[in-house]
Amino acid sequence: MNFKALGKILGKIMIIEGILMVAPLLVSFIYNESLWHKLSFVFPILALVLIGFLLQIPKPKRSSLYQKEGFALVAMVWIIMTLFGALPFVINGDIPDYIDACFEMMSGFTTTGASIIEDITLISHSSLFWRSFSHWIGGMGILVFVLIFIPESNDGSSMHLLRAESPGPQVGKISSKMKVTARILYLIYLGLTILEIIFLLFGKPIEGYENDHFFHCLLTAFGSAGTGGFGFVPGSMEMYSPYTQYVISIFLLLFGSNFALYYLILLGKFKELFKSEELKCYLSIVVVSVTTIFISLVTRLEEFGYSIESAFRHTLFQVSSIITTTGFTTTDYDLWPVTAHTILLILMFIGAMAGSTAGGFKISRVVIAIKGLYVSIRKLINPRYVSKVKVEGKSLDEKTISDVFAFAALYIFSIFAVLLILSFDPVNGSTLTVFSDLAGHGHLIKHGMMSNISAVLSCISNIGPGFEAVGPYSNFAGFSPISTLALTFTMLLGRLEILPVLILFNPRTWKKS
Length: 513
Known about the structure:
By secondary structure, this protein is mostly helical. The chain has helices at 3-20, 22-30, 35-54, 67-85, 87-92, 98-109, 125-140, 142-146, 157-165, 178-201, 213-225, 242-255, 259-266, 270-274, 277-298, 301-304, 308-323, 338-350, 363-381, 398-422, 449-460, 481-495, 499-504; strands spanning 390-391, 394-395, 431-435, 442-446.
């Protein structure tokens, strides 16, 4: 294991996190927060920069990284960033418990959006900014950002880092140069974020928060871009105007698309864009899901207090939010019919496109798995059948297909393992009151199996809210410290797609080679 090379890159990451933490510090000054709130960011910044520079001192004999080292480094980076990123919440008292603060920060960096905060109105502007800004940082990936600055290597080190951090079954370069690829990705990411902020500024400010309109537009864009979903006012996006909710819905779907497709648009290769099999599948799932849920709601408009327009708007918003694993909400979908619950649960598992900022299993994997199963069944019926699995017009080798099924097995095993841990939590069987809207209408919810299942699926797919006790108007504060740590670890598994985390904690990784 090349510890000096790992330390050097890790040090760079820590310095960058310290620099990024200056942004919420400035917010603290802008909103004239207390000295202690300012110091809550100053102390971690100094610690990150100091440790980061100290890690730069040792000179590694080998600057390159093997694949296992690259994967382990990625997992290590996300853990270190979370541990330091949680410190401001504890120091300023917004989240006094360090385990809860780590859960909140991991939820931010992994763009999950699950929260343990029970009253968001008590949180300072600087902490609100840091939470949502962490979505934007983690959305494209901090190491993708770092690849812009570190020297290009000819040994595949950069590719190992990109593969470990980028979601999806296939990771390739847009350009022949990895550094150029990283720059293109971030320029597209930044461009779409700025575009959403502009559209949001035309929307009506939230009533009672008129002075925070620009601030809220920033936080909303950060959450949308990273497909994170942290709320910053009561009711998530419920208080926003219909125009703003439609804008958010559209941009969620845009950020849930493969960023390589936007590069094709910039090059004017529209024919290749429309040939994308995954894009067609993505849009088809959205259309079918919206149509089915909308029909199930139209028959019960009076029960939910919807008009036809609002029923369509809430449906479009929640489908966009769930399939892109964002987690923003405009209504309590936990009260919707079973049909709607079933579709949303399926969308939680599937997720959006590979190469996007969204989590989940990924549509490309679903397509590969279905085609792989079809070919396997045909071969059982006719052993002479020699057809290959093709995706996007390209034949896939056996290794790619087997990797998809192996990932599916790990994914499902992880869900069951964490679910077993949650089953021992004392919160199981307890009853709580959930206020399903801003008017204060409440109903009793029992913390049961569905709460645990949706909590695990929500964390491993990096979604945020689940159903019942962890539904859109609830939070994750009821879990015990052990369950909270398990769910924190689950979010990391989901964001890095399991393998980098397993490699990090495998004893063989750290043996001398």
